[in-house]
Amino acid sequence: MANDTPGNNNHQARNHVLASQADLDPKDRPIVDLVEWCQQRGNIVALQSGLILTTEPTARDVQNCKALLVNKGYKPGKVMEATPQLITLMLANVADDDEAQQQVDVQEDEISSQQKRLRILVQEAVDADVSDIHIEVRPEVAKIRFRKFGEMYLHAEWFPRLGRELASVAFNKETDHATAHFNPLIPQDASMPLQVYGSDVRLRLASMPAHGGFDVVMRILGVGDDTKVVTLEDLGYTPEQVYIIKRAVHMPHGAVLLSGPTGSGKTTTLASCMQMVKSTRKVYTIEDPVEKVVPTVTQVPVNSDKDDRSFANFGRAALRMDPDYIVLGEMRDEDTANVMIRAAITGHLVFSTVHTNSAPGIITRLIDMGLSPTMLSDANVLVALIFQRLVATLCPHCNVPLKDAPAHKEHMERWHAVFGDNVEYIRARGGCKKCNNIGIGGRSVVAEVIWVDDTGREFIQKVDTLGWQKYLRNQGWQSYRDRTLETVIEGKVDPFDAETLVGEISIHSAEAGFDYTRIREDMENEMAREAKKPPQ
Ligand SMILES: [Zn+2]
Question: What pTM did the predictor assign?
Answer without folding.
Answer: 0.74
